[in-house]
Amino acid sequence: MYNKIIDKIKKKKINISIIGLGYVGLPLTIGFLKKNFKVQVIEKNLEKIKLINSNKSPIKNISNKEIKNLKKKKFSISSNYKNIASSDIIIICLPTPMTKTFSPDMSLIKESFNKLTKYTKPYQTIILESTVYPGATRDIFYKKINSKFEIGNNFFLAYSPEREDPGNKNSNMNKVTKLISGATDKCLKIAENLYSNAFKKVYKLSSIEVCEMTKLYENIYRSVNIGMANEMKVILDKLNLDIYEVIKAAKTKPFGFHPFYPGPGLGGHCIPIDPHFLTWVANKKKIDTKFIQLSAKINRKMPNYIFKKLKKILNSHDNRYVLILGAAYKKNIDDTRESPFIHFSKILIKNKIKFKFHDPYVNQIYLNNKKFYSSNLTIKLIKNANVTVILTDHDAINYRLVKKYSSKILDTRGKFKPNNINIF
Fold first, then answer.
1. Is 187 a catalytic residue?
2. What angle do CA 414, 416, 418 make, to 5 degrees?
3. Global pTM?
């Protein structure tokens, strides 16, 4: 039967179920459909299902045209887990948030797994793509599957972490190596045959735990280095030196240096959250994660640091508003998860400072149970603000207009040369 599964994959006769149609599940769905696989999506958000059925994309960097093209492929979408019974391969692409105590929240994965186990059958494969702590795949899936089947014999389990980078054209399936792992050799072989159809390169790892850790290591590397860049920004501000000029010069070295840039804080699902997963596991083993915790502390402080800079240049007698440019957590996308804008805006609200925001990709956002809308970037909007704060450096923002009509600019992204009369 195992050989039949491999044969079905090679002939593209298998049925794939993808659970979760977000920043990971949707690109993966499109990728498999483009390779002529049959894909059914299970999504509990009925609003997303409505959008898909109306040929509208729930994600800005995926066009409506691509969604419309799904209907021409072997595609279906539903909130019903009963469809799992007709699947050969089940891929779970659900978020793994962090609790208030900085521990990993696996509840969405566990809830989904409990629902789908009612419809599992022999010779299916479950693949987890969510970012998790080392050992999570085994903790969540292994015992329950083995109580009904035998993993590696008549049921298969694999882990393959997502490497999506929304807005980055170099993060698609043709350019990013896909990491794969399996609970047994046969599990790994199924994952290899499946993903090598959709990805240009696959890279096999010796165990699921190593694969889980690799994903965390990638994001810890970025968090720690961004933390260093943010600390350097604070220091060089005091020394009246331009950190962007320093980084630009350091980049001329052809070895031993990779540029990381300061900013108003971390955002997205990965970098602000994933490093804490390893800290949580390490603490269970009574190991201290000094670098991880220090960088996280520095990065979390950045919205407050930006606010302190803002207070220094605000005219206390000026009762106008602060104009914030950018609500998304990084440029050219609509994703506001963990965005520095959220943390910074809440500080402004707490200090009773009025603000307006403009973001070409984010129309509205909830803060403290209140809805805020993006304003059109007009000359009047800019001129009537006492300070313009650049939090996200979207390419679509008219910076010429911003520079010409802003009374003062607090630039957290290095769009303008510092030390100009109105740029801080």
1. no
2. 85
3. 0.91
Q: What is the pLDDT of residues 274-297, one digit of tens each?
A: 889 999 999 999 999 998 999 999
250's tokens: 């350091």
Token duo for residue 83: 């469809």
Whose tokens are 């390419």? That residue is 395
Same domain, 192 and 305: no
Angle CA 41–36–6, to nearest 5:
90
Looking up tokens 């050989």 gives 3
Instruction: Tally the domains of the chain.
Output: 2
Task: Write out the two tokens for 264.
Answer: 């108003």
Q: Cα(187)–Cα(189) distance, rounded to whole angstroms?
A: 5
Name the catalytic one among 93, 187, 211, 270. 270
CA-to-CA distance for 148 and 1, rounded, in angstroms? Answer: 18
Q: Is residue 217 situated within a structural domain?
A: no
**Domain housing 60:** 2-206
Distance CA 57, CA 48 (A): 8
Which of left, alpha, beta for 98 (phi over 0: left; psi -120 to 50: alpha)?
A: beta
- pLDDT tens, position by position, 140-149: 999 999 999 9
